[in-house]
Amino acid sequence: MSDKNEKHISISQKQKEKVDSGIARAQEERGIVLLITGNGKGKSTAGFGVVSRSVGHGYKAAVVQFIKGKWDCGERNLLERNGVPFSIMSTGFTWDTQDREADIAAAEEVWKDALQYLSDPQYHVVLLDELTYMLGFKYLEKQDVIDAIKNRPKEQSVVITGRGAVTELRELADTISDIQDTKHAYKSGIKARKGIDW
Ligand code: ATP
Ligand code: MG
Question: Is the pTM for the entire model greater than 0.85?
């Protein structure tokens, strides 16, 4: 056997031992809090990916969209047909009108649905899409949100998406993915595309 090959085998063996011992150590069984944040594209799509994965295994999932954004949403069209309830902030988000009171009322209204999902053990996954902004702008009481997530059923996982997650959310999360904005088509003038961006 060549030296190069022997070296490769020894490196692979060490890597395998590391992976195996990691797997052996991870024994706790409980739902997790997955935070997908950062400025890059792919946070909501990843969140919906987790929901689809769960539904594909026959689990129940629920989605709360804290910023309505564009009315049309490909994932919603697909997942609602598969029995996933969606709760959407009724007035959307009034960036332009700057009607803070209306935004707070809308956030509180949809938060009631979130609370229901977060206390119902039949939901294996709850996606809180764009929740980070509700805390960043203080539209929802931070402690209430943290407590509700902490006190959820043991087997339930929560996926939170949005930019600029506050420290408390980062502390609460079991897994954090910071999606980096390395390059985005929009910045070279390419228009947002149906089926790709929503
Ligand atoms: P997606 O919904 O595509 O997964 P996202 O959830 O990571 O994106 P948001 O911050 O929620 O991103 O932004 C929503 C919209 O903005 C989407 O249409 C998305 O494609 C677009 N977008 C995301 N990241 C960027 C970026 N870095 N520059 C410009 N547009 C972006
Ligand atoms: Mg998003």
Answer: yes
Q: Which residues surround ligand 2, an ion (CB under 5 A)?
A: 43-44
Residue 174 has a pLDDT of 98
CA of 133 from ligand 1 middle (Å) equals 14
Q: What is the pLDDT of residues 149-190, one digit of tens each?
A: 999 999 999 999 999 999 999 999 999 999 999 999 999 999
74-94 b/e (C-beta count within 10 Å ≥ 16 → b): ebbeebeeeebebbbbebbbe
CB 118, CB 126: distance < 8 Å: yes
Domain boundaries, the chain: 29-181
Using the mean position of ligand 2's atoms as its centre, give its distance from the Cα of residue 42 in Å: 7
Cα 70 to ligand 1 centroid, rounded to whole Å? 12
Is the pLDDT confidence value at 97 over 60?
no
CATH number 3.40.50.300 given to 29-181: yes
Tell me, using a 6 A CB cutoff, whether residue 132 lines ligand 1.
no
